[in-house]
Design brief:
Blueprint lengths: L7 H7 L10 H11 L12 H7 L4 H15 L3 H35 L3 E6 L2 E6 L8 E5 L7 E13 L1 H4 L5 E2 L18 E2 L4 E13 L5 H4 L13 H30 L4 H15 L4 H18 L2 E3 L3 H6 L4 E5 L10 E7 L2 E5 L9 E3 L2 E3 L2 H12 L4 E4 L4 E4 L2 H12 L4 H4 L3 E6 L7 E7 L5 E7 L1 H4 L3 E6 L2 E4 L2 H16 L3 E10 L7 H4 L3 E10 L6 H10 L3 E5 L4 H10 L8 E4 H5 L3 H7 L3 E5 L3 H13 L4 E5 L5 H6 L2 E5 L5 H6 L2 E3 L4 H41 L8 H12 L1 H6 L25 H26 L4 H22 L15 H19 L1 H7 L6 H33 L1
Pfam families: Cation_ATPase, Cation_ATPase_C, Cation_ATPase_N, E1-E2_ATPase
Family: Belongs to the cation transport ATPase (P-type) (TC 3.A.3) family. Type IIA subfamily.
Protein name: Calcium-translocating P-type ATPase, SERCA-type
């Protein structure tokens, strides 16, 4: 279908849709059922069966299964069956862990999918892009990603970057006019917008003509290379660590096997024991647990209104030293309310807040609305905000600044009907570089003029006359100082100021922005406030305690920014404020010298953000940068953690970011940093637990060989220890709550290794103690039991397990086991109880005693086991508690 040749009316008729009311919801649902979701076909996901079989592809598991086959051939049927059952259970655990990770990542992808603004039943609604159907009337604004192919029917300066289709990065200016040409290639169809392209400027409305695989990008989907999932730096480091641990475990295991054979133990018995020990010692579950810990942490972040788009951001969050945050909407409520108006020589107070009713007062006396009517009417005409009213309430759609103007206009008894008396001929949209918006309009008398709305410091140099009541006066030095003084006064009260200007135009006059945005007549100022969020002050203090500096970046006046910064206790007494003008005239070297002492950047453009990020990074900082617009994308990409706004952010900004704030709230950044730190610490916890436990298992076997004792553990016992201690307790550590002082610690150095801060020593020393107490338990039981081997092995078996399960609580704290309440993590309590529940039947259920070569234990045996198992934890816990108390006393 050659949609580009059709007029807007023809397209609407063909697709059975009313341009003014959109599709009916019921019709849209029927079309969605018929055509399917609006998305491209994806590669087939691995089946559940494949995920399960994948668990048996590990080299050591294959060796173990081969050894099990050998055991069966030699008549050791019970051993063979038990080992197969244990391997099967282990594989099930791995399977469920991987499945959980896949579901978490799929949920992430769904949450970060783009949204679409469509007209349904005469109402503009926001829906997931997958629910868009052919015939939908869809709104496009600067920064949006086009979610389907569409015919543009209305446009105002809209330009679309189509590099995803054409490879050409220069944006294409689009038109709504039909094109009377045949066989036109899609790059030349300038009245069409295609799925996957980006709106870089202006805004418009289109009718969806194709969705999913029927779109232009869908037709060439085979040429699109899907990006494979990338490992995070942490996962890559752990993968390298895993290889090293495999080599070390194999060397130590081989040494134990050779030593055992040399001492006269049967080769088959030592081989099977060696393979079992290697399987237990190698932390093959580590990558899966890391993935699950990351995905579970990401799910917790989602509950705190933060979506992680790149998993590498999770570990980088813990290293963040500077947060560069937008002011409006992030540190403030983004509920702009007009409090003051200024007409030349007259200040007017506006009451009523964000409600549609209120009064206008001058010199504490209520005045009529006629004096402010022109100012607010022009402001309303030069905006895209609108009010949707119901019987009991109202909702304002549009930019918060424009919404505030429309609300104030309604207080002056102005309505949409008043706005509709002006026909908009042309528009030059607002952008963060121009800091102004212009519409060329024609009124009912066919008088044509331009209305310009923007920042006072941008518009005043373009003003030549001022409206003084009903007459124009030339803007002289006196008038300019009067207006500038009022701007400064408003800014000191934390009011954001908007200037409204007009310019009469003649028919046929040059209507380029260069022409119409000069020689303006000043109408007045609008002063509005966006109050700070109540919770942000506390969040900034928390970040400061965590060694993280908060920097405010805003397009507002420096005085306004300073007033808000002081209310939030963001800027210290020695803190500097720099403006965009300062940055324009400042060499990079000088900015690098000043940036560490600067806490507020005012009147800046997105281009300045990139300069700020680079200066901070040159000083060695790890920078988190917020942004919401198309032009913010370079700074978001350049920062260590790009943070986009989920509500006000454009799709371009979201795609360039690593973190999306669903509520656009600064406090969410602080929560995300805390969660990111906690995820990394939890990963360190279970690395510490797994490796120390594995070291203990190897050493108890090694000590027995060195002192010429029999094997303290048989293969099925080794594998069972691995099953009950490695899985659930390690996973439960990944769910641990943060330590109380987590946000009082300095940021983690970005190049810090996993074993930093003494973790390597803790693993070796605790593993050594676990191995020693287990060997002592075995040796004493073997001697006292008059060489009753099964009794001694049962004692060793239980001592090793109980020592590891006690050690898991020690791993919860960097300081001491006594530093935390064990009942804070009920998942861990449950995991330990489950592990013990898997052990008790092995000792007291007679059929299992035969399989695992165990004997029942008496009360005195359990007292000895528990006493020995507590020795490593008590010894280290007491030492660490003394050390912590001493350090605290020393700091005081």
């Amino acid at each position: 279908m050659k949609w580009y040749q059709m007029s807007s009316d023809q397209v609407c008729k063909k697709l059975a849709v009313d341009q003014n009311s959109g599709l009916k919801q019921k019709v849209a649902e029927e079309r969605l059922k018929k055509t399917g979701p609006n998305q491209l076909a994806e590669n087939d996901k691995p089946s559940l069966w494949f995920l399960f079989i994948k668990q048996f592809q590990d080299f050591m598991v294959i060796v173990l299964l081969a050894a099990t086959l050998l055991a069966g051939l030699l008549g050791e049927y019970i051993d063979a069956i038990v080992i197969i059952i244990i391997v099967f259970i282990n594989s099930l655990l791995g399977f469920f862990q991987e499945q959980k990770a896949e579901k978490s990542l799929a949920k992430l992808k769904a949450l970060s999918a783009p949204l679409a603004h469509v007209l349904r039943d005469k109402q503009w609604v926001t829906i997931p892009s997958e629910e868009v159907v052919v015939g939908d009337i869809l709104k496009l604004t600067s920064g949006d990603r086009v979610v389907a192919d569409m015919r543009i029917i209305e446009e105002t300066g809209i330009a679309i970057e189509e590099s995803s289709l054409t490879g050409e990065s220069v944006p294409i200016n689009k038109s709504s006019e039909s094109i009377n040409q045949d066989d036109l290639d899609y790059p030349d169809q300038i009245n069409m917008a295609f799925m996957g392209t980006l709106v870089t400027n202006g805004h418009g409305i289109g009718i969806v003509t194709a969705t999913g695989m029927e779109t232009m990008v869908g037709q060439i989907a085979d040429l699109i290379v899907q990006t494979p999932s990338q490992q995070t730096p942490l996962e890559r480091r752990l993968a390298g660590l895993g290889k090293v641990l495999v080599v070390l475990a194999l060397l130590l295991t081989s040494f134990v096997v050779v030593l055992g054979v040399w001492q006269g133990n049967p080769i088959y018995e030592m081989f099977l024991a060696g393979v079992s020990l290697a399987v237990a010692a190698i932390p093959e579950g580590l990558p899966a647990i890391v993935t699950v810990a990351l995905s579970l942490g990401v799910q917790r972040m989602i509950k705190k209104k933060a979506i992680v788009r790149k998993l590498s951001a999770v570990e980088t969050l813990g290293s963040t030293t500077v947060i560069c945050s937008d002011k409006t909407g992030t540190m403030t409520e983004n509920k702009m309310t007009i409090e003051q108006l200024y007409l030349y020589k007259q200040s007017i107070e506006v009451t009523g807040g964000h409600q549609l009713t209120g009064a206008f007062k001058s010199a504490n006396r209520e005045i009529g609305t006629s004096s402010v009517r022109d100012l607010l009417l022009y402001g309303m005409v030069c905006s895209h905000a609108s009010i949707e009213r119901t019987k009991s309430t109202f909702q304002v759609e549009g930019d918060p600044t424009e919404a505030a103007i429309v609300v104030a206009a309604h207080k002056a008894s102005l309505s949409k009907q008043d706005k509709d008396k002006f026909r908009i001929i042309k528009e030059y949209p607002f952008d963060s570089d121009r800091k102004r918006m212009t519409v060329i309009v024609e009124n009912e008398k066919r008088e044509r003029f331009a209305i310009v709305k923007g920042a006072p410091d941008v518009l005043l140099p373009r003003v030549t006359t001022v409206m003084d009541k009903q007459r124009k006066v030339t803007l002289g030095t006196k008038e300019q100082k009067e207006i500038e003084g009022k701007v400064y006064q408003m800014a000191e009260q934390a009011l954001r100021t908007i200037a409204i200007c007009v310019k009469p135009l003649k028919q046929g006059q040059d209507d380029s922005s260069l022409s119409v945005e000069n020689q303006l007549t000043f109408i007045g100022l609008i002063g509005m406030i966006d109050p700070p969020r109540k919770e942000v002050k506390k969040a900034i203090k928390s970040c400061k305690n965590a060694g993280i500096k908060t920097v405010m970046i805003t397009g507002d006046h420096a005085v306004t920014a300073k007033a808000i910064a002081k209310q939030l206790n963001l800027i210290p007494s020695h803190g500097k404020i720099l403006t965009g003008h300062d940055l324009n005239n400042m060499p990079d070297r000088e900015l690098q010298e000043q940036v560490d002492d600067t806490y507020v950047f005012a009147r800046v453009t997105p281009a300045h953000k990139l300069k700020i990020v680079q200066a901070l990074q040159d000083n060695g900082h790890i920078v988190a940068m917020t942004g919401d617009g198309v032009n913010d994308a370079p700074a978001l990409k350049a920062s260590d953690i790009g943070i986009s706004m989920g509500q006000s952010g454009t799709d371009v900004a979201k795609e360039a970011s690593a973190l999306v704030l669903l509520d656009d709230n600064f406090t969410t950044i602080q929560s995300a940093i805390e969660e990111g730190r906690n995820i990394y610490e939890n990963i360190r916890k279970f690395i510490r637990y797994l490796l120390a436990s594995n070291v203990g298992e190897i050493l108890v076997m090694l000590f027995a060989m060195l002192f010429a004792f029999p094997l303290p553990l048989i293969p099925v016992q080794i594998l069972w220890v691995n099953l009950v201690t490695d899985g659930l307790p390690a996973l439960a550590l990944g769910l641990d709550q943060p330590e109380g002082d987590l946000m009082n610690r300095p940021p983690r150095p970005v190049k810090e290794g996993v074993f930093a801060r003494g973790l390597g020593f803790k693993i070796i020393s605790r593993g050594l103690l676990i191995g020693i107490v287990t060997f002592i338990a075995f040796a004493s039981a073997y001697q006292n039991g008059q060489h009753h081997l099964e009794y001694a092995r049962t004692i060793a078996f239980m001592t090793l397990v109980v020592a590891q399960l006690i050690h898991v609580f020690d791993c919860r704290s960097e300081h001491s086991v006594f530093a935390r309440n064990p009942f804070q993590n009920m998942y861990l309590i449950g995991a330990v109880i489950s592990s013990l529940a898997l052990l008790i039947p092995i000792i007291y259920f007679e059929p299992l005693q035969t399989i695992f070569s165990t004997v029942p234990l008496r009360t005195n045996d359990w007292i000895g086991i528990v006493t020995l198992s507590f020795i490593p934890t008590v010894l280290f816990g007491f030492t660490k508690s003394k050390e912590k108390a001493y350090n605290k006393k020393d700091r005081v």
